[in-house]
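In the previous chapter we treated chains in isolation. Here, by contrast, the input contains two separate entities that must be folded as one system, with a combined length of 626 residues.
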Amino acid sequence: MNYALFAEQFLNGIQLGMVLFLLAAGLTLIFGIMDLVNLAHGSLYMLGAYYAATFTEMTGSFVLGLVIAVPVMILSGIVLEIVAIRTLYRRDHLDHVLATFGLILFFRELVRIFWGSAGRSIPLPDYLSGAVALPLGIDYPVYRLLIIVLGLAVALGLYLLVQRTRIGMLIRAGASNREMAGALGVNIPLLYTLIFGIGAGLAGFSGMIIAPLTAANIGMGDTVLIQALVVIVIGGIGSIRGAFVSSLLIGLIDTLGRSFLDDLMALFLPVNAAEAAGPALSSMLIYILMAAILFFRPQGLFPPKGAKA
Amino acid sequence: MSATITLARIVAALVLALCGVMPYLAPAVGEPFLIGLFARSMIWGIAALSLNLILGYGGMVSFGHAVYLGVASYTIGIFAFHGVTDAWIQWPVALGISAFVAFIFGAISLRTRGVYFIMITLALSQMFYYLARSAEMYGSDDGLTISRRSDLGISWLNLNNRVTLYYVIFVCLLLSLFILWRIVNSRFGMVIRGIKSNETRMEGIGIATYRYKLAAFVIAGTMCGLAGILEANFEKFVSPDTLNWPRSGEMIFMIVLGGMGSLFGPVIGAVVYWLLQDVLSDITEYWQIIFGPLLILIVLFARGGIVGVLNGKRRDA
C-alpha cells in the first residue's frame, strides 16, 4: 500500500462523500420538514445529469451549462411538487414510497424518450481536465478537487441559509412546529414548495457535477439513492449536520474499502481468498456499518432535537 | 372470513380458474404466450402474497422483499452450477436460506419503526445485490444461466415438461393461498393484524410484539423463497437484477394494484400487472411512462386496489 495511492483514494472518498452530501441534504431536509419520504430523489439526481449534458451541448460550455441547468432543475422540482408531491403530505409513509416509486418509473421512461437509452458523456473544458500537484508530491485531478470545493461551498451556503437568513428561520420554524408556524402567518404550502425546489436543486446539482466523471445514464439514480438513504439513516433522519458527517464517513469507507480491503485481508488470509472475498465484502461494507450503528443507536448518530422516529 | 359472495371474490375465483385452465385455454384461443405470462404472474403472485402478510396485514413496509426471492433463485442456480439438481436437497436449502436471511434482516430492521424501517429493509437488501454482482464465479453482472431444472425424482413430475412445471407453480400458489388464509385467521394472524392497528396497545395487553413481527417476517421470507425456487426453474436464469430494489417496488405495486390486506388481492394484482405490461408494451415501447403515473393514481384515489374498487370501498381497511 503506497502512500500517494492512499492519499489519492482518500481524496476520492471525500469527493464521493461530497456528492452524497448534496443528495442526502435535500433528502433529509424534505423528510425532516415535510415528513415526506422521497424515493424519486435519485431520479432528480439523474435528471440533473441529463440537463447538464443538454445545456452543455447547447452552450458549448460546461460552466455555462451548469448555470442554466441549476435554475431549470429548481423549477422542475417546484413543478413536480405542485403537480404530484403536494397531495402526498397528508398521506402515510407507505403512500409516499409508492407514489414516489411511481415517479421513478415515470422519470426513467421520460429520460429514455428524450435522451435515449445510451448514456450521455459530458466533455470537460481543458482547464478542468488536467491534474494538479498537491503538497507532498500527490497529483490529483483538478475536477475531482473542484467537486470537493463545490461540495464544501454548498454545505457552507446551506448552513448560512438555514441558520442566518429569514427563509432559514421559516424553515426551522416549519420543521419544529408546522401548525404553530402556520398560525403565526407563515405560508406553509409555499414554504414546502420552496424546500422541495431547494432539495431538487441540490440533488440535480450533485448529478450535474458527477456527470463528467460517470456520464449521465439511466440507472445512475438507483444506486446513489440507496447510498444517500444509508447516509441519512446513519446520520439521523432530518439532521443536515448528521448528513454531512455520515456522508464523509460513507464516502471514505466505501472508497477506501474498495481499494484496500483485499490488501488488508491478505495480511491474515491466503491471497487468493482475500482477492475473492475483498470486492464482495467491500461493496457490502457500508450496509454492514449501517446495521451495526442501528443496532446500538436506532436513531442514528445525530438525531435532530425532538425527532419523532 | 364469512362466506358471503362478493364481487371481489367472484373475480378472485375467476382469476384462479383462469390460472388453472390456461395451459389448455391459451392454445385454444391461439395465444400460447399466455401460458408463460400466467406462470410468471403466479410466481410473482406467490411473492406478493408473502409480502402482503407483513405489509398488508402487519403494516410493516418492507422494501427489500425481492431479496428472499433472489437468494432462493441463486441457491437453485448455484446448486445446478455445481451439478446438484436433486430438488429434495435444493429446495429445502433454498427455503432455509431465505428463512435465515429473513430472520437476520428482520432481527435488525424490526428494532426500528416507520421510515427507518423502510429505509433499512431497502438498504439491507442492496447488500445482497452487490454480493451477487461481485460473485464472479456465478456470472456477476451478467447473471447465472441455470442449465438444468430441479429434479424432483418422480417420473410424472418432470419440470422440463412445460405443462407439468406450470401445474407445479399452480399448486404452489394454491398451497400458499391456503397457508396464508390459515395464518391470517389464526390467533397469530389476529396478533399481526392487531399490531398493525395499534402496536402499543398490543404490547399493553402483554404480547411480545417483536417476536410476532419477526416470526411473520420469517414466514413471509420463506414463502417468497418458494417463489424464488419456481422463478429459477421457470426462467432458467437468475441475475443480480432479481435482487435489486426496484423489484421489491414492483412487488409492492402488485399488492397495491390488487388490494392490500386482502387474501386474493396480490394474486389478482400480479396477473393484472403482467397482463397490463404486456398490453401496454404492445402499444408503446415506453410502457413505464404509463405505469408510473398509474401507480400514483392508485395510491391517491384507489388505495383498496382492484379488490377495493370491486367491493365499493375507496380506502381498504
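The beta strands of chain B are 144-145, 237-238. The interface with chain A takes residues 55, 61, 63, 108, 111-116, 118-120, 122-124, 126-127, 130-131, 133-136, 244-246, 249, 252-253, 256, 286-289, 291-296, 298-300, 303 of chain B (CB under 8 Å). Compare these points with the single-chain example from earlier in the chapter.
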